Amino acid sequence: MKLVQFEGFSFVEGGITAAKGFAASGLHCGIRANKSKKDLGMLLADHNCAAAGMYTQNKVKGAPIAVTKANIADGFCRGIIVNSGIANTCNADGIEKAEAMCKIAAKATGLSDKDFAVSSTGVIGQPLPLEPIEKHADALVKALSPQNHADFASAIMTTDTVMKEVAVSFTLSGKTCHIGGCAKGSGMIMPNMATMLCFLTTDVAITPDLLQIALKQVVDETFNMVSVDGDTSTNDTVLIFASGDAGNAEIQVQEDDFRTFVNALFAVLMNLSRMIAKDGEGATKLLECTVIGAYSKEQAKIVAKSVINSSLLKAAMFGADANWGRVLCAIGYAETDVDVNLVDVTFASENGAIEVCKMGAGIDFSEEIAKKVLSADEVKILVDLHDGEETATAWGCDLTYDYVRINGDYRS
Predict the structure, then answer these.
(1) Are 72 and 19 contained in the same domain?
(2) Which one of 195, 260, 290, 393 is the catalytic residue?
(3) Is 400 in the active site?
(4) Each residue of 66-81: pLDDT tens digit?
(5) Is the full-model pTM beyond 0.90?
(6) Does one domain contain both 266 and 291?
(7) CB within 10 Å: which end of the chain, N or C, has fewer?
């Protein structure tokens, strides 16, 4: 899909290894029955890196999250080992298996198990076999290369239909810097940390504390504004590693360089968010809801997320049905005060734009034009609350027959 451009930032190839100091690999080890699908990946830095993470808000959490949190508690990490196919969640031996994955990675690289984060994604409740991971660990390490970013991105996919990689270059202190990463996510995705894995690298020198602050700020505006189906997963993880190899003056305060870094991170995560939303299970189109005229940023975000999470609206968008009443309905049950008598709604796409609601009431519009607007593969839902100056955007997708088919036999 077409990337959204940002002034001052150039998109580059390389994904998670676009930044200096990182190598990646991915292969099929046998966790998944389909031998054509990679299911084991590794990212490794040349040296210890500042590290930060964010995780699922589900009360049921995958065992790898606990191990990763412990291993990066000091703000530093060297790499990550990750598998797809089995989530290692709700298993009595989950922590033991997650720790064992780190030990396997450590033995193969000659490092400490505490140098590694660990992540898993896939079916919940099935025991994770360690034998195939251990058997292929040496091959995984041997394959490590800055050129193998796509193998890593492929190894973390489950029901995703496309790889999701983004990287940008920009300048700090006269030095060329990079942020790059990859993500997986297609189903079980709801605002407040979408059901997904995302791994990011940067060659910017930045303290662990500011790296965490930057990550939280941007995730709140991007991944936390995505919804596919209203379900929040158990293993959601976003990790970022900073090598410092770009040679910029280390970012230690929240001034100009920090703000530039945050904006670069936004360029990456905003585009990854759009990719996740568009690749929703069974989806045929990307939905983008932008709310303007809100009295606060929080109000704008709540309304945008409520609209994008409405199953009825998603279904209407699948049918290219301009049922704007479903937008008003979703605004009406959003957990914030809204004067619905002030609300305007417009649908837009590359095929044009059409107003469908003014001041909380329907207006005459051409159903034929509306159908054409909503038949595009990217549809914008524009909501004006006429109550302030704040704005927010959320991303989602339509709800189709295929979503039920995919999730009706997910374990098979």
Answers:
(1) yes
(2) 195
(3) no
(4) 999 999 999 999 999 9
(5) no
(6) no
(7) C
